[in-house]
Design a protein that fits this description.
globular; about 230 residues; three-stranded mixed beta sheet
Amino acid sequence: MFFSPFLILYAFLFLLLLGFIFVLLEIGIIHYAFGALGLPPELAFLALFASLLGSYINIPIATVDGGDLHSDDYVTYFGVRYRVPHQYAGGSTTVAINVGGAVVPIAVSLYVLVHQPSALMPAAFGVALVAAVVHRWARPLRGLGIGVPMFIPPLVAAVSAWFFAAMFGTLNHIDAIAYVSGVLGTLIGADLANLGKLRELGAPVASIGGAGTFDGIFLTGIVAVLLA
């Protein structure tokens, strides 16, 4: 299933932000940050780029009764407009997993934890804290899925990373802790913890890590890189 998690304007803004990060990489400002995260700079940039492109790809995994279909073409949440994928409308809601907002971040998180095992425990606490805060702010969006304000996950991830890294004496892994706790905490708190609400949305597609939560996950990855 192919559709954008947001309007083309926001995709353009994300591309500009990605270009700015590439410039920083080339002049070496955040070279050390990528190295501390455990990924070579080029691989880290590729992961961010794959997240953006993968945000258009959703893999169906189940169908549920979604109630009456929401008729509006657009849904606005915290100033961001999302397009409802009516082209996939049917008699039920398709539950999918977004490649850029779920598959890629989970793969990067596993890579980071495998290469920095001492970050596992503080990251686990960070995931729990981020999930709790994000769940508090997550809201069902009729016709779309679950939405969360995009700046909450990265900010909470940054604060929790500093706190738990200091508690466990792993300040040298703070960027890894921020990334893992941020992306996994957002997926758990926003999407997985709200799966029971999908029947109330009237949405053609409810994508885990997709529209409404992708932008928070994408920003969390960037903030994690800039934390070191």
